Each structure stands twice: as structure tokens, then as C-alpha cells.
Amino acid sequence: MEEVSFEVTEERKKFLLNKIAQKVIDYRLAPVAIIFLESSKPLSFLGNQFLIFMQPFYRALFSYREYEEITAMLEDRNNIEALICEIERLEEERNERKRAEKNPRH
User: Fold this and answer.
1) CA dist., res. 69 & res. 13, Å (int)
2) Which residues form a coiled coil (predicted)?
3) Per-residue pLDDT of the chain (106 residues; tens, 9 = 90+)
4) Which of 9, 21, 40, 88 is the most exposed place for a label (fewest CB within 10 A)?
């Protein structure tokens, strides 16, 4: 079986990291995801292998191409850190919206 390699551009990487982070926020899993990602940084290659093992689950959330790009991206610790930052940014935006809804300005 031929292995397909995906080249992930910076623009595409930002799109995919945002998509993953948004799904994490939508499912209200930010704290769990951040802890998991922080603890897996030293083992990013093993984490990547785990993603391959869990492919049937993730394929329900992402297309084949997106899934392959994500697994390739997450081999790099810098991308894991970028994902954590994106999750934190989106979580803060969500919290700001909730605060604004609770305390509308007159």
C-alpha cells in the first residue's frame, strides 16, 4: 500500500488548528484538551501514533485529508503548542461572550 504524504501550508495549518480548537470549545473540553496536549508534548510522536490508532473516531469529525494533515502536523511539538494557544484564545472569546451576555451594558 502506497503511503500518501500531505504538505501542509502555514495557511492550511492555521485553518486546521482553528477547526480542532473550535471543536474542543464546542464540546466544552478545553481544560481536558489543554492538559492532555501539555502532557503529550514530550511524546508528540507517540501521540501521533495514537491518533492513527484512533482514526475511526476522528474520521467522524474530520475528512480523510484533514485527518491525515492533522496527524502529520501533530508530530511537531510547535504545532501542539499552537493548538493549545488556539484553544485558549477561543475559550477566552467564549468566556468574554458569556460575560457580555450576563452583564449587558446599558
Assistant:
1) 8
2) 73-103
3) 445 556 789 999 999 999 999 999 999 999 998 988 888 777 665 666 666 666 677 777 788 888 888 878 877 889 989 999 999 999 999 999 999 999 877 5
4) 9
